[in-house]
Amino acid sequence: MSVLPYDDRDGFIWYDGQMVPWRDAKLHVLSHALHYASCVFEGERAYGGEVFKLTEHSQRLVDSGRILGFEIPYSVAEIDAATRAAVKSNGMPDCYVRPLAWRGSEMMGVSAQSSKIHLAIATWPWPAYFPPELLENGIRLNMAPWRRPAPETAPTKAKAAGLYMICTLSKHAAEAAGYADALMLDWRGRIAEATGANVFLAQGGKLHTPDPDCFLDGITRRTVIDLARRRGIEVIERAIMPEELARTDEVFLTGTAAEVTPVGEIGPHKFKVGPITRQLREDFLALVRQKPNEKAGAAR
Questions:
Q1: What does the H/E/C string look like for the chain?
Q2: What is the pTM of this model?
Q3: pLDDT of res. 299
Q4: Catalytic positions, please?
């Protein structure tokens, strides 16, 4: 199976205020971000040419940069406009969108106070994070070998590149064992999230999800909580131990890439793709396809 590399594609990338031909969007090997993980990013989706909850994503990007000690040299409104321009320039009304900001190559060493802050926005087609044929019965997860760190040990409220190293390691281990993804615990042994998505458990008609005190409170996560409450489904955010999987009826993941993805298996535990999962997946996919004025009305 041939894979089109991400550095050799047609199209354009918005880069530091200009639309740059895709293959020319480069940075130096001695960029601080490459050596010391001083990079933040977002994952977004455009549906019908509109990026879902764009301003929330742009604001989180700015906030993540501030948590890492740098100011992105563009306002949230300017990032919104640049994102729309990147989507339009590549002629992809349905696409994945990746804004990222990072420290450049002016300084090399742990300290890089004077490094230039760069911003780039790329878009590409990404129909489904998990193969569609897996969704009917749910994807299979194993337990991750790594745990989410405590807030006192890492900037867990930032969507920072360095925090995803253990996600890559965990997902690689899962795929090598024949699973689609991995469920991560936090440093206390509580259920946290998958490697790139939040997790929900349906128990007795109620929806339970881990309290996001050491991982991202995802934008899709918050959207699904709102959709569930509109349906009259009680949503409880709390500490959840892995032993509770044995008495859980349904499990699903949420995220920009994953959207609403049913889970059929976690280690020895098996689940059915039940009515709560199906309803919320249907509601979410309908919401993201609404026109902007319809979304505004639905949010009231």
A1: CCCCCCCCCCCEEEECCEEEEHHHCCCCCCCHHHHHCCEEECCEEEECCEECCHHHHHHHHHHHHHHCCCCCCCCHHHHHHHHHHHHHHCCCCCEEEEEEEEECCCCCCCCCCCCCEEEEEEEECCCCCCCHHHCCCCEEEEEEEEEECCCCCCCCCCCEHHHHHHHHHHHHHHHHCCCCEEEEEECCCCEEEECCCEEEEEECCEEEEECCCCCCCCHHHHHHHHHHHHCCCCEEEECCCHHHHHHCCEEEEEECCCEEEEEEEECCEECCCCHHHHHHHHHHHHHHCCCHHHHHHHHC
A2: 0.93
A3: 42
A4: 159
